[in-house]
Amino acid sequence: MSDKELSEISVIKSTGIRNHFRLLVRFVCLIGAVLCLLPIRDKDALMPLVPALSSFVAVTSILAAKTIQPILGLGLAVGLFALCRHRWFCRWACPVGLCLDGASCLGRHLKRKPCQAMSIGRWLLALTLGGAILGCPLFLWSDPLALFSGVFLLTEQHQLLAGAISFLLVILLLIFSLLRPHIWCRGLCPLGAFQDLLSIMSRSVRSALRSATDLPGCDRSGHPVARRTVLGLLVGATSASILRFTGSEPSQPLRPPGAVDELTFKGLCTRCGNCIRSCPHDIIRRDTGQYGFTGILTPVLTFDENYCREDCTRCTWVCPSKALVGVDLDNKQDIQIGMAQVDMNLCLLGEDHECSACMRWCPYNAIRYIFSEAEYMLVPVIEPGKCNGCGACEVACPTSPHKAIKILSNVKIV
What residues contact 342, with CB distance under 8 A and at least 6 apart? Predict the structure, then answer.
């Protein structure tokens, strides 16, 4: 053989070894992600790590919340490395990417036509970042790591329906990848588009330092990548401002403790399900649309059988985007979830029966009874300075089928 042929064979072998090594690393990352999300031992410690690795979630969260939380450092580190290595996370670590690449590989064997370059993911990215500037990221829920995390709600017996929704979304992505190989990674994924943007920025800076005249992704007509990004940011910011100033929903749900303002919460929540799975008292559910389409699949509190315990703040520490801000036990009473309200038409005291269940069960001593001259009977009075809306009184209320005391969400100006 000639030296040229030997060189080509050496390159092919080297490429094959590298590809096999990369595939092994991806499988290890997939197994690691699954182990982090499975309910094994202290699941709260590892649960937020997988969605927190998304640089898309980290940067968007910082823009929307105007603060940096320690867990966001994981995503920022991934983003910094992506400045030097284009889409390294997609190629080496993304668990969703490995699964979809498998479906795409099968699609190619079935002679399906691969997806060509699309810009939907870039538009999702620009719209989300633009909205985040005004506190309302529009499509943060489309992050692939958040979708992957949501599937593991299936491991919770009482959350099978909520987990099934995320599972179906991932199945749809697999079907799309089978029919149009690489459609998600190349054209739809906002995390991949964010890595593309970081790579373009990095190359542009390097070119500027070398006094280059042309930027990556440009032609003689101008800078289409830059124009599209700027336009998307403007449209996202405009959409967020319209949502913010057109008013809030007439009926707002009860959110877990530490939730940011309602509009920002709907945008920041990745729908990953971490807060739901971390709750040891099963009081967090997914919104199925009863509070409007914009909040679908976000977490809401229900006090059917249990309440938000005064000694628990788990849900506030597993949120990867910090739609729920970390709460300490020492100041949990000051974190307002809602406010108790009594309907004397249902209360047993209004029917001249004896009852003190709500007062006895209130962990914050926020309920007392006074004699009403107008009603000529004892009535429960809620002290707003002590009540944080934990729901203990609602659970304890013996009236059925409707509770005489209910926790209502605070009226929030958004």
Answer: 358, 379, 380, 382, 404, 405
